[in-house]
Amino acid sequence: MLSVLGMDHIVLNVADVERSVAFYRDVLGLGIERLEEWRARSIGFPSVRISADTLIDLVQVQDAAARADRVTNLNHFCLVIADEALEPVAEHLRGRGVDVYTGPARRWGAHGNGVSVYFRDPDGNEIEVRSYAAGALERLAQASAPAH
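Above: the chain's sequence. Below: its structure in token form.
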């Protein structure tokens, strides 16, 4: 059983990142993070800080025609869990017929780097489950280290 702690972030597909940054910053008064890194093309997206615990990531839609089949503008949402190991979580989901198709892998979010897996709900919505537990990154590093 999962023990969900909260919402980490949402990712929005946007046509114009600068326009979206201006809206969230100037209209809603939210802080913008990683904007200069995004402008320098060293990262894939900037983030909007909702609270200490929650972000909105703004992802530039490169090919609107290729994404036309998407009904919603929401890319995915992320739930934070307390578990240190994501493998049992993935097995729990698989045991209930859920296809965990990405992860465990290291990914950036509202609290820095964490370890997460991706899957879809019955309606096709993409869900990320992430752990920021102290040992999660260490376990991932050990699992991917070459055997000696």
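Residues 4-144 form a domain with the 2,3-Dihydroxybiphenyl 1,2-Dioxygenase; domain 1 fold (CATH 3.10.180.10).
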